[in-house]
Amino acid sequence: MGGHQSARMMKDEWLTPPNIIEALGEFELDPCSPINRPWSTAKKHYTVEDDGLTQDWRGRVWMNPPYGTEAAVWLDKLSKHGNGIALIFARTETKMFFDHVWNKADALLFFKGRLFFHHVSGEKAKANAGAPSVLIAYGKGNAESLRKISDWGKFIELKS
Known about the structure:
Elements: H1 18-24, E1 29-30, E2 44-45, E3 61-63, H2 71-81, E4 84-89, H3 95-102, E5 107-111, E6 133-138, H4 140-148, E7 153-157
Parallel strand pairs: 1-2, 3-4
Antiparallel strand pairs: 4-6, 5-6, 5-7
Helix pairs in contact: 2-3
């Protein structure tokens, strides 16, 4: 679900479409969860009040981090954890993507078209996200989860 919870965007949280979570299976932890959420994304949720970056991460992680430059520190932690899936904008040319995705992730799924995120009320946004999105898998099992929904876009295996 991952609220986009940067200090400057506290009132502008956007939630992952629930069909994505359902398709990917059960997660142990969502370290970027909004405080108010109409559906669960994991067994355990850390909100901005918990500061998910400072917490221990265990098990399979779902992460829709705050967008912008701060997403890099979240991807760094997930890549070191090695077991999870992240949803971010597909800014493949950025330093963040080169540092934390291209050489560290196991697989990617680039979505066909643009996603429609949801408001914390659960209501689907009227406009699309305004940029392409990608799911990033860390760990072989998570790469397989992306492969299973490869008809949603373009699946790329980075490690075999």
